[in-house]
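Collaboration report, partner site 2.

Our partner group contributed sequences for two proteins of shared interest, and the home lab folded both. The records are reproduced in the order in which they were received, starting with the first partner submission.
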Amino acid sequence: MAGPLLPLEIPLVHDVLGHGPTIPSAPMAQPRPAALPPAERTIGQLVAESIRFYGEHFRACLALGLAPALLAVISANVSRATLVVLSPTLFGALLSASFVGASVLVLDRRPPRRRLVETWLVGWLVFAPVPFLVLAFVLPGLAWLAAIGMVVPVLVVEDLSVREAVARAWRLARADFLHAFGSLTTLAIVVFLTQAVLAFILRGFGGAAVSTAFFLASVVVSPLLFIGAALLYVDQAARVE
């Protein structure tokens, strides 16, 4: 008598009844590698940590973009002569306010109001020449901020006089100037490109006016630059210590 055409026991292969080996499923996503300590943090990790912090504190950080967005709109609608006057005055004051706010938020410090005003005034002096340096070429402006810009978070965190804070900021910059300069340059490029793409999307698909598109894009994207600059203080301080 002939045997059965099918075996009595149908094997289970990869939990699929009666089938041959199936295509293996994709491996599970690996957990994110642990971040390096600030003293060893790379430029890419600083940018990544800045994005992560922004995402976790989105509403609080969004206010940091109001000043740069206002400056972008003003710059596009005034004459060059007016722009020369506004750059070291109004622009410097507003950018300093955003950086002070970012330093307070990122570094989780709440200095007295008098100290905040002092920090804002010093930051205003730091930002005053930046527009002129940027007009010459963007890199000199970033180099200036890398060299002396950390005086703002120094004044927020450390109990130093203004003169001591300037010296401390310069010491932090010299601890790893390439990291400081490279981080600010990378953040500036990321912010610029992301802001341009977002403005294009808002203009092309959202139907917003050009000035409105750039204002909204700047509000959303520009806080990343100030957040990264505040985190840079942590990296440089760890390198000194």
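Second partner submission, folded after the first:
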Amino acid sequence: MKIIILSYGSRGDVQPFIALARRLQKNGHEVKIAAPHRFADFVGAYGVPFVPLAGDPEEISKRINDAGTNAVRIISSIRDYIFAIAPQVSRSAFAACEGAELIIHSFLFTVGGHSWAREHGIPDVSVQTFPMFAPTREFPNVAAAQLHPGALSYLSHWLATQAFWHGGNTGYGPARRANPDIPYPQNFTGLLTNPARITFGPRCCARTAQAFCRARAIGTRISMSLAISFLMKEIINHLMN
């Protein structure tokens, strides 16, 4: 199976998918990773084909850190930068998806990767390395870490999800009109219609498994990278059967 992994962000957003790609390669699949260009040598050192994407994830991290813990300020601070580089990133990412038989996408590629896959009739899997798109009362969203468990924690997840989807919707139309040469999906999917796969460590294993009623959550006593690998092996086996 030909598989493309779309991930954008810091090293922590890319490194787990190298482990995933290596495991899939050992299972006989053709895998490549599309990620920020600064990780070309890092990914290439493990023998995984790499597709470089424009932009600097350090700029995104800096804007998030400068925004503090206010979720609205965080989203606003990174919105302009992301929209500025989105055309270049989209052009390379969608080109990399051509010929793929499965698309795996992480946080910032959730909307674009999912929409492109559905339009082309390709199965896709959303893999999140932190809790997202599955509200829970057990703990708050990462953008509102100061909140205590309970109703406000649930609301923080819901608000973060709404901001993510509506933020993507806001920039999609203008980007598509301004860049007709980019093969944007004709039908933009504003909601994730397949379950998210969320990995987590053993300390929150039991509580998290109970908390995410709409997400497939698998806990492990080993590293997060291998957790994703084992999870994806199960997913690939399911798709092949």
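Feedback sent to the partner group on the second submission included the following. The helical segments are 11-26, 40-44, 57-67, 71-97, 110-119, 151-178, 205-211, 224-240. Residues 151-178 form the longest helix (28 residues).
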